[in-house]
Amino acid sequence: MSGSTHRTGRAFVLGLDGVPWRLIEQWCDEGVLPNFARLRDEGASGTLESTRPPTTPLAWPSIATGVWPDKHGIYGFQNLSRTYTHEMYTSHDVTQPTLWDLLSPAHVGNVPMTYPARELDEDGTMVTGMMTPSTDQDFTHPPDLQAEIESRVPDYEISLDYPEYADRLDDFEVAVDEMLANRREVMDIQFDRAGADWRLFFFVYTAPDRFQHLIWDMDRLLDHYRKLDAILGDVIEFTDRHDADLYVVSDHGFGSIDELVYINHVLEREGYLARREDEGTRGALASLGISRDRITDVLARVGISEELLVSTLPRTLVDSVAEQIPGDHALYDVNYEETTAFVHGAGNCYVNDTDRFEHGIVPPSEIDRVKTELVELFESVTDEQGDRVLTIADGDELFPTDDGSPDLVVNGVDGYDCRNAITDQLFGDTGTYAASHRSEGIILCRGPSIEPGATLRGARVVDVAPTLLHGIGEPVPKNVDGRVLFDAFDSAATPSQTKVERAPVTQPENGDEEGVDEDFTEVEDRLKGLGYME
Fold first, then answer.
1. Predicted structure pTM score
2. pLDDT tens-digit readout, 430-452
3. What are the start-end ranges of the E strands in 173-225?
4. CA-to-CA separations, 175 to 136, 151, 230, 363, in angstroms, rounded
5. Nearest-CA neighbor of 112 among 210, 185, 257?
6. CB contact at 8 A, 46 and 443
7. In 272-381, which ranges are continuous DSSP H helix?
8. How far is Cα 374 from Cα 245, in angstroms, rounded to an integer?
9. Which domains does the chain possess?
């Protein structure tokens, strides 16, 4: 721990998953979000640029560590192995110290990618967030905190299976409201445990993201945001009582989508990706009209869920069965021995090179040539109006310190959302989804040293951690990619008048990784074996 007895500053990070700046700005101007408006007027605020791609598993670790994915180690929900199988990322894969590693006592609640719970120094607490398999698993530190949550919030859930509410939006709103209230109760429990002796609170509400994926109606959104505003009011009072800095941040923004783009279709159409032929068992099942969807529908009718299957069967059996079931598996529908490039995860494009992959066919000397061809190909993809629908970034430029990073990152422009399923069409209907991620989130901060009414320009997710640390008098790890946002501080305050102190980087202690794998593969996240999670 870098904290010491003479350092007394403290900070609270309130995370709001997927909140876009333009909605906050509009509703603050209209006077319908009084606490957000108060935070904007009494503190510093602006847009917050997300990671590339702008997704939860990349962005929250970047906010918590101050580094990009090539240094913190998380590129998505699932890591792609040399043998083209999925390995779920856990908190053990985060290789850069987080804010709660640097500050103690720390209290961490519902932050994505924190499962399994890490043991915190002193009297810290943690309630793990998104990617926690279920509340049947150990999801807190210390362990007795879980018993208290189960007693006070008996129907507490990590998240909602929101696609199930696609045709029941009224029920969905009720479920989101309940989730929000339960999460607020858990935050209260952690408040009670913290007392007056704490250095860091880091609590995330994922409800906005869940809500907006299905509902992008401004009246309904405003009603949801009013509830967030009420929570913010309680947090402002809490931070005022403890003379703490408050940072309200979102990992990315949000916006409506009109159409889906199937990126692997582009690669298959142009001969860069080869689809597996339906031969043997797979072909026989396909000829009988048996698909993944039909099988899971039948199992659901008799009470057998996908989660139960993947938590009960050994991994090798799950993988081998999945390989034989026809369906839109971006993982198993590829013939890698004849594939030059493929897309995995949230637009991560990989050249199938001989050094990286078991069945790679591209020599390392040809990677740059193939990448150039792929960039030209993706840039040529247009809609009916002739407008480009994809954005492309070079993985070597985004992630310069990691040779194992994606070769390219391909995402849709505003209005288009990308998918990895291997289909016979380039575009598809959005189905249950109304909106999806955008790169521009929010940052609002307020506290003893923050300049009232200041505007933050050019802030990025990696700037949050170094700014917070410097603001409360703590050193900043030497290798951070972010900068201290000095525009946030009052010119007469100590952070404005002191140089940034640098500290050596210490690797986080990750405990027993073997135990994590055993826990993680027994529940829903073993869906990697069936290829459901991209």
1. 0.88
2. 988 899 999 999 999 999 999 99
3. 200-205
4. 20, 20, 18, 51
5. 210
6. yes
7. 280-287, 292-301, 306-312, 315-324, 367-379
8. 46
9. 19-252+439-527 (3.40.720.10), 257-277+338-435 (no CATH), 279-325 (no CATH)
